[in-house]
Amino acid sequence: MKKTDEQERIEQDKRLKERMSRIKHKLIVISGKGGVGKTTVAVNLAYGLAVKGNEVGILDVDIHGPNIAKMLGIEGKRLIGSDAGIEPMEVLPNLKAVSLALLFEDKDQPIIWRGPLKMITIKQFLADVNWGELDYLVVDSPPGTGDEPLSVCQLIPEINGAIVVTTPQDVAILDSRKSVVFAKELKMPVIGIIENMSSFLCPHCKKEIDLFGTGGGEKSAHDLKVPFLGRIPIEPEMVKYGDSGQPFIHFKSRTQTANIMNQILEKIIKSLDEQKSL
Predict the structure, then answer these.
(1) Percent above pLDDT 90 for the chain
(2) Residue 137 lies in a domain
């Protein structure tokens, strides 16, 4: 007998809860506006967690701009199904990824969807992807406080918190503050604010130059009473490594910028461990 829509919805909700129950820590990376390096931060955090020996998944819910496949070096590959569900793409033996970019053959194909279809897709990713046992699931959300981040935050049971990425410019700081308020209104912990593209180290004189200003992210964190995780400097090579599918935190691990990113990662891990002990 054919199942009713209500029966299918109930079964999907049950699968979603079961899948998520096998993941210890669930994080969403958000930003108030585009162009602040949110996806770069999400990819490097996920890769960094995996390099430390954790079982990690990264889910790209930036429906209209899914870029993690390119930044992880798996662009052009395709997700497949199995009896257990949708199989995530293996980046490393302990790092798996899922993105809409792994479903479409034409990388120039735009996603022209309204809100309800986007929510259906996100729910299917959460309910039907065979993540298995994970230590961390990192969700890369599109900028703003619209359908995608709202869907993720409402659908994932016991989400551990949000990481807010901003740049020092006033307009980015203004929007990042809205992201913090968004998380608080959903009763979701804010793990902290990261100020990206915070300064530039001149390769010739070694002087630190504040091209876009500095300190706005830290001030916002102080004003909104949330942790400040750190400042990531402008690193021209990070763009090159991201475009070639080589996360900077690992492939340029000896640099000052990679060291800063690892320090931020340790703060995130510590925050989650403290959550667990409460």
Answers:
(1) 71
(2) yes
